[in-house]
Every structure is written in C-alpha cells, then in structure tokens.
## 1
Amino acid sequence: MKTNKKWNSVALASVALILFLILVSSTASAATEQSDSCVKTYAYVTNYASSTVSVIDTESNKIIATVKVEKYPFGVAITPDGTKVYVANSESKNISVIDTATNKVAATVNLGNGTDPYGINPYGVAVTPNGKKIYVTNYWAANVSVIDTDTNKVTATVDVGSQPLGIAVTPHGTKVYVANRGSNNISVIDTITNKVIDTLVTGESQPYGIAVSPGGNKVYVTNFGSGTLSVIDTATSKVTATVNVGSGPQGLQSTRMD
C-alpha cells in the first residue's frame, strides 16, 4: 500500500472540502457590532493544496478570512463552544489551533514523528461533546492522538488498526469509533481509559468515513473498496445492514435516524 502514497494523497485531497466543511456558531468579534441575540455562523474549509483554511460567512456566502496553516490540511473539528478550530496538517505531523475570535493560529500541537518513513499523516479529527478532548487519526502511524483542549498537549496515543482515517465520537462522549482502511476494521475507544475496547469487522473493504447517529444508536461506515455503506448497531456491535452505494464512497453525515 505504501507505494500508493501519492495516489492516496490525491484521493484524500479531492474530498477535503466535502468531508470537513463544518459550521460553527460564534459570537466572536462580530458580537460587538450586533445585538446579543444575534449569532453569526461560519464555515471553516480546509484547502489541501494551498495549505490554508477559508472562513465563510454563511449569511453572505463570502470568504471573510483566509488562515495560513501548515502543509496539506485535511480534517477539521470545532469545539462545541465555537471558540477553537482544530486542523490536521497531514504532511506536517501537527495540528493547527485557530482562535475563532481572531481567525489566527493560536497554537500548534506537535504529534511526534512516528516510526514509519512516511511520517504519521494526521487526517481525521473529532471533538468530544464536552469540548475537553480532540481525537486525531494518524494514517501511517496506525494510532490516534488524544489532545487536551485546555493545554493543547497530547495526553495519550492509542494504537488502532492499519491506516486509520474517519473518526467519530458518540453523542454522550463515551466512545470513539475509528475506520481503519488498511486493516478493514473499526476500532472502538473508551474515552475514559483511552483504550481500545472492541474491534468490529463489517466484512467490507477499506472502511473510510464514519459517523454516529445523533441518538448514538447507530454507526455508519463508508467502505471505499466495496462501494457500500455499513450500518452498525452500537448496542450489539453488529452490522445490521449493508447498502450498495456509488463507487469509492468516502465522506458522510447523519441526520436524526434513530
């Protein structure tokens, strides 16, 4: 698989905007110009090739800021209070932390070098509902970094399957689901212990994107190699349905379907 690193990067870059355009509600500096009841909403978009993040005002659909980050940004997550944006820089082995009040990089979290000659390649980013932890998939390192949002330090590194990509936290914040493309399985991490407590196999090829339903009863996994979507019951950890979709499915999101 490592001989296909360039192909993987191109494929990943092609969906960066789809996977990681996220809306954030923030009173930030705009609050001084508007009433207290008015909340501005922005979209933060990672631009893989230009190593920037575009900030879009969703009312006007205009770019209001462009934030320079590090090399090849991909995954992005915003804390629930809307104050910080965490961006995975896939070729820089680190995370940029953007302050939404200023739209400036306020901190950089180093994730380490790893032992693989290709580096660690952070891609997927997810935040817990209480905003206390950030989970980052490191593609070539086959692990997940856990970041404390108060200190912006890595507090744990969790070994998972090969080539982890998609990552999602349950609504109650108790579990993290990781799609391991290389090993064709799903790792389940306990957020209290930061240990893998289960490994799920869907029977499909190259799990890629992952999402948890708003009620937390189902996990949805896109399988890039199979052209399918797997539906997992979180109570039983069993696949309850497999849906044939288009070729090479990657990103996904769920509305309330429990």
## 2
Amino acid sequence: MSSIYQLARAGYGLAKWTPQGARHGLGKAVGSAIYLGWKSKRINTQENMAYITGRSARDRYTKRLASDSWKNYGRIIADFMYFPHFDFERLEHEIHDLTEGVSSWREYVDQALAPGRGAIAASAHFGNYDMAAAYFARHFPFSIVTENFNDPQMTDLVLGQRKERGIGLIPMEGSARRILRALQQQHMVAIAVDRPVAPEEGVEICFFGHKTYVPGGPAALALKSGAAIMPGFMWYGPHEECFIRAFPPIFPRAGANKNEEIARLTQCMFDAIEEIVRAWPTQWYMFRQFWPSE
C-alpha cells in the first residue's frame, strides 16, 4: 500500500468533517507549496501565463497568475477529497450560468444531442472538471475518458468516486472504439483536449496568437461519428461562487476534406478555450510547456 494512497484515504476521511473554507485554504496552501518547490513546473506555468498575458515570464503579474493557478488546483484537489459528500442538489440552486446566446446551458446541450449522434464535450484542464462531470451526469448520460495512476489502488479509489456519482468511465487505452459506442448510444463524452504534442503528432492551431500543436483525435471522432462538439466549463469565482458556461455546439461538415475539417474543428474548440482562459487565466491548470520553444 503506497504512502500516497494512504494519504488519499486519510484525506477522504478528514474532508467530511472539514468546513469548506478550511478545506479550500489547506488545498491552496498545498498547491502553493508545490509551486514553490517544483522548479520545472513553476517555470512552465510562468511561461504559459506569459503567452496568455503577452508579458514577460518574469513579470510580477505573470508570476502571480502562475502562483494562483496552482492554488486553485490545490483547491479542486481538496474538493475531490470531499466528492463523496458534496451536495449537488444545493449546487443546482446556487450555480451561476454564464452561458451566452441562450437562456441556459441546457439549450446548447439539447442542440448538440438533437441529431441523435451523441456529443463530445470539449473540456480542458480548467476549473473543477470532476464536479462538472458529476453535475452533467445528473442530467443526461455522461462519460469521461480516464487515465490510470501508477498505483492501482489510487486508480481504483479515484475512479470509484467518479463512478459513484454516475459518471461513465472510458479508459484511455483503446478509447476510440468505446467513445464511438457511447456516442452511438446518445451519450455525451468529455475529453480534455488541451494536451500539447510534437508537431508531427498533432494538428497545428493558433492559441493566444501563437502556433502550437494538439491532438486531432477528438475532432476525428466527431467527424467519423457525426457527433457535435460542445465546449463547456465549470469553475470557482473569487468568492467561492460556482460558475458554469457552455459554448454553442460545433457540427462536423459532411463531405468536407478530412484533414481540413479536423483542423477546423480543432481550432474552433481552442477558440472557445482561449475565450474562457483569457477571462479566467488562473483557472487553467496547464503545468507543461504548452507552446513549442521559439
């Protein structure tokens, strides 16, 4: 039994009795300590924030955003420890919907699912994605693509908590076939699309005015299945309030050139991610180098 697993089990037990303010404060403190102690990740985060702000990575404001993103990441980890006890019924009444162009995020979901081919929820390492998945799963069949930990017990613990909240789990290994099957069953499948890759492995996009490369797999799945892509996010505000925003669904164009359509769909996803990250930069937990070195 690993020490990380033991700490996680203890954290789940303590979280039940810890008030939200104290829980979030502890999570932020842990996130801040990791940021200060892990030099390579600190530099990566500062450089990513420099691309977002257009300032130097050594700029004081850029560094503050980088530090705050790690604090917010610590907060969502603390929230996950409380996951089994979270009151989603209360969240239904307290959440602030910032979706634009329609009266509710549900309208965009209905539009995305209307053709009967399922939908891909284009998510990112942004906000509280586990809470978002559990929240969406209360309303319609919802699955996420998952990765395993090195420790099998940690994998069972974390995935078990997600499963108990009604979230469907699709292992990353051989996920394409399982995703297509879920889409055929009119499910919504969430994929975190913001994963930087080498130029020869991905699709070129423009993100915050700079070129980088990301996987084309989500767009290829949408094109093959005919499923719409709907970017959506949930996150905390400065006063612990919870926000949600869905973007208009993006529909693949039948008969279009395959490579051009994959590039278009991928760019559309990242246009939405850029808009939300620009507005809430400290909610983006990208601790790897996202743009290639210039």
## 3
Amino acid sequence: MADLGSDAQPPAGLVAAQSVAQRTDNTLISRGVAVGTSEIGPAAQVAAIVGELGASGLGPPSTTRVGLSALVTHPDLPMQQRRAGEGDYLVLDVAPAVEGWLGDCCRTFVVGGGPEKHCLVGEVERIQSALIDHVRPGMPAGELFSFGAALVADAGPKILDLLDNIGRTSGRELAAEGCIDASNDTPMWGAWTIEPHVGTQARGVKVDDMLRPPHHGSAVVL
C-alpha cells in the first residue's frame, strides 16, 4: 500500500513530513527571491530550513528551477548558476524526510513582473484544484490522468513531465505503486501526490500537493 495508518487517520509521520514541505515552500516564498538569484541559492536554503523544522534531511534532492530550467524539474538534473530575471518563473519543489516518511510540496511563483506574468501559474493552479476535486477513493490512477490530460489540452499548454505523469504514490517510498499516468490502473488508496508540471512558450509551472483518499468519504489534502 502507499501508506499505513487507519482509514480515518493518516500516519503522523507522513502528516509531519508534508507540513515541513509546505512550511519550507511558504518560508522561501515569503522571503522572496531577488532578480539575479541563482538556482543554487534557494536549494541551499531549503536544506537549512527543513532541518530547522525537524526533518532528518531530504528524500530526493530539492529542486529549484529558474526561467528555461523550469521546463525540466527532475531532481537528478543538477541545479545551475542560471540567474533569475524579472518575470522569470521560479519552481520550488521540496521533499523532506521525517521519521522515514516523505513529504512533497511544490509551488511556482514569479520573480517580479506584472499580473500578465502570473497567467500560466493561475491556470495550472486551477487545473490542480480541479484534479483534487475529481479524485474519488479507489478510482484507477489512469482515469485521473485522462481527466487531467484533457484539462491541460483544453487550456492550451502541454504536460512537461519527462515520464508523462501528473503524480505518484507516496509514503515511505516514492512511486512504490507507480505514477498517475495513462497506463497505471492501480486503485487510488493511501497517499498520492497530485503534481501537474505544465508549460507553454518556454515557461514551465509545477504545483504539487499530497492527498489521501480513504476507503470511506472524500479525499483529504494533507
């Protein structure tokens, strides 16, 4: 299974790990990122913040991407000295470990720029909200992918994920029961991340939340 714990209560370690992930992203966003900041700078801050918040470290490495680099957010690709320019998108993807459990939260924000720069971010956030609302406990993961792919196609951008998915199972391991992609019919029980990575016109946006569809009732966002 994607996680343990009772049907009513998710594992405390998983909840704690996800809280650290969310608070880390919020801390970095509240501090702001100045024009000229490199991808490496925020990545170093992430490591310090998760430790201060009680994490033992990071599961996969944190991913901070700026500008064109936001089109590819895989953690195995090293961060660069690429500098943030006015209006660039900055992707902050954090996966801390707490008591062996892995959190996962990603947000994208704009480095300066006017309201028009926020259009794609808002569109992906709307897609994310619709995906979360569409989840039904036990539904096949591939069914959610089809729904999400249609939303993205209707909006105009394209899915950028290198493995063509929009999420995966989570818990003590990443993707132990696969990803939310066209070929995975695994029923959605336990913890899953919903993380569309979408882009258009040399801009990439990624949003990542974790939810837990119980056997009874609506899915709960952790």
## 4
Amino acid sequence: MHRHSHLSSRLSSRLSSSRSPAWHRAHAGPSKHRTYGYSLLELLIVVSLLATIAAVGTQVFFNNEDSVERQTQRELIMTELRSLANATRRFQQDTGYLPGQGPFPARAHSADWQQLLVQPNGPGGPIMPWQIDTGRGWNGPYLSASTEGRVTIGSNLQLDGSGNPEAGALITVFSMADSVIQERAPGTALAWQATANNIDVVRGAPILLFSNAAANANVLGCLAPCVLSFGLNGIYEQGNGDDVVLSF
C-alpha cells in the first residue's frame, strides 16, 4: 500500500514537470501581485477631461467675479439715486413744488440740478426765500456742492425723456454725475467742464431728473418724478438696457 502511494507521487511529479510553461500559465490561479497600467489613449482622455474642467471652472470664476462687480456698481448707483430723490423730496416739502414748477423757472434740461444747489432768483429777487415763522420756502442747498459740476449736454433730450442727450445744440448746466467713470473728449456731449486750474474733469454720465408726467410714456420704469442713471455703459436708453431708474 505504501509502495503504491510512493509510486503515484513520483508519476504525478514527472507528469507535472513535463507540461509546457503555457499549460502552467493557463491553469495558474490569480496572482496576488498582479499590477495594472493605463494605455496612452486612456491617459490622453483623462488629461483632456481635466483640461476641459479647468477651463470651465476658470470661466465660471471670472463670470461670477464680473457679475459681482457689476452688481456692486449698480447698488452704488442706486444709492446715489436715492440720495438725489431724497434731496428733491426735501425741496418739494419746503416749497410745495418740484424744481422747475410753480413759481420756479423752468429747468434748462433734465440734467439741470441748479435749483437744488443755488437759491433760485426771479425779477423781484430770491424766489420763495425761507420763512422761519411758517417753515416754508427754499431752505437749501439740498445737495453737496462738492458732488456737482457743469456738464455739456445735447439739447435734443427733452424734459419728458424723449430725445438724445448727445444730439442737438450743446448747452452747459449744473448737474450731478453718477459713479461710472466715462472718458469724454472736452467740448463734446456729456463732457464735464475743466476746473479752475484748467484740468479736465473725468466723471460719470449726468443723472437725470424727470418731473414731467409725460416722461411716464417715454422712460421705461418711470412714474414721475423719477431719477435716471445711464448705467454701466454710459448710454441713455430711455430706461431700457442697463439704465437704472428710481421713481419716488
């Protein structure tokens, strides 16, 4: 019995050693140390995907950054418009009229803010001077003189909001500028006059005041009285585009 077992073992060993290497590879179990690699095509696909993701991420980042900057600028413009609206309301509360109405002379232009800066005068002297006993009359200035200036603007723009501020004969009025800086050649429409030191003034577009109810039909979003900024592009678009309008 023992001898038979020994003989079978020797025979099995000889049969195993006589089999080819290919047979052994085919019948081998899974290797515990098998390694995996990537083909060149797979690597190129991964690199391409990573580059695409990076490009999209960069574009989204800059778009968001630009959007935040534009939103911040519009909020600043709206703050300026509220300040001018409040000043106009104080003028109305003190006098009973909006600028250019009642006993006050007609405003030269929708960009004209002079009556809120300087006591209006008529043939008989100051118009509606402040009366302490009644608490009525002009009690300005209603705006800070440091924020005003003289702007050259086209007379084609009407008090009802129709027309083009860069067309028609050029006139110069006391006005208020928004915060969006716009380079304008001296002597052209929407250019601010040089200072006493002959230094060109670079400011934003003038803010417009519409007190005429007819502006409701010509300026989108206006329920007169309203104030309007030309917006980030510096172009008057009658309340369309990126114009910023505030009714009060």
